[in-house]
Amino acid sequence: MKAKILNLLKESGNNFLSGEKISEELGVSRAAIWKYINTIKEDGYGIEAISRKGYRIISLPDILTYEEVKDFLSTQFIGKNIIYYDSIGSTNSIAKKFAESGGEHGTVIISEEQTTGRGRLGRSWISPKYKGIWMSIILRPNIVTENISQITLIGAAAVQKAIMKMGIKTTIKWPNDIVLNSRKVCGILTEMSGEIDHINYLVMGIGINVNLEEKDLPMELKDVATSLIIESGKYMDRKLLLANVLNIFEGLYNDFVQSGNIKETMEICRENSLLIGREIQLINRGKVRKAKAIDISDSGELVIENQQGTIEYIVSGEVSISGVYGYGI
Question: Burial letters for 179-213: b for 16+ Cβ neighbours within 10 Å, e otherwise?
Fold first, then answer.
């Protein structure tokens, strides 16, 4: 009911909408409407109320509910069901619980704050309230398990393209980091439930540092992490950026899952690669070795030339570059 009242107020624009009109439209009492209006105010909406005129919205909150994002969405299924939280431990943890209990494909779990956000390899992820995009997408792709890594690249390509659409040039550090001025601005964590030949579901966690200020970053992360506003000096519209990510992701995802086409994703990853042409350090199961990144294959592997001059195709592993967010060679 609250969402219906909110929609009516938004549709009325700058015009006042009387309690009587809302009552007739929705079949609820004036007293009930007053209570819902108060809960809408508590959500951060500025509501002007004048006797004999009614109500109108005078300001919108910077929150990432479906009601605030839907006008920017052009998707068919991704983000059509947004489960919104003010604060939780980890969106991936909640998403996996929903997925286990039958949560539908394309559902997005989003929170204004994570208290125990996680990155790859068990690293923590700082997620302050109202400053970033902290979300997880439930996916049920009908693909073979060996192609899961390509879904992560689709996520990276979608975030890269969405941020560039906002006027900021970032780069992709294969396979799952978005980097801005040698510091990490976004991380992606994809987790799977399934068998050898069957995927039950994937949960793709995406954390984007949007409007974090320097004071929001712990001292130990200042050389490692950054945000869009720190680097650009411009306050970013989180609603628009979120919708851009979901819109672009769905297009790239559909191309891949429905027809096996990952061409656009690979083009985005190659053209905006932080690694290609650079000396890198590969870290896999505790072993460290040097190589040169020379390409990303059509199926998403990192193509390297090892120190013996042999070409290798790397499916997964940790990669570091000298001078890039705290890693050295």
Answer: bbeebbbbbbbbbeeeeeeebebbbbbbbbbbbbe
Give the contacts of 38 (CB within 8 A, at least 6 positions apart). Answer: none
Q: Give yes or no for a cis peptide into 218 (omega within 30° of 0).
A: no
Q: 83: part of which helix (H) or strand (E)?
A: strand 82-85
pTM of the model: 0.90
The token pair at 132 is: 């970033």
Name which of 154, 143, 157, 156 is nearest 192 in CA terms: 143
Q: From 3.20.20.70, 1.10.240.10, 2.30.30.100, 3.40.50.410, which CATH number describes the 279-320 domain?
A: 2.30.30.100
Q: Answer whether 1's CB lies under 8 Å from 36's CB.
A: yes
The per-residue pLDDT string of the chain (329 residues; one tens digit each, 9 = 90 and over) reads: 888 999 999 998 889 998 888 988 888 888 888 889 999 998 889 999 998 889 999 999 999 999 999 999 999 999 999 999 999 999 999 999 999 999 999 999 999 999 987 655 455 567 889 999 999 999 999 998 888 889 999 999 999 999 999 999 999 999 999 999 999 999 999 999 998 888 999 999 999 999 999 999 988 888 889 999 999 999 999 999 999 999 999 999 999 999 999 999 999 999 999 999 999 999 877 788 999 999 999 999 999 999 999 999 998 888 988 656 554 32
Domain ranges (residues) in the chain: 2-59, 66-271, 279-320
What is the Cα–Cα distance from 223 to 116, expressed in whole angstroms? 21
- Residue with tokens 């208290």, as numbered in its chain: 115
Q: Which residues are CB-contacts of 71 (< 8 A; sequence separation ≥ 6)?
A: none
Look up the CATH number of domain 2-59. 1.10.10.10
Q: What is the DSSP letter of 236?
A: -
User: What distance in Å separates the CA atoms of residue 109 and residue 91, rounded to the nearest whole number?
Assistant: 6
CATH number of 66-271: 3.30.930.10
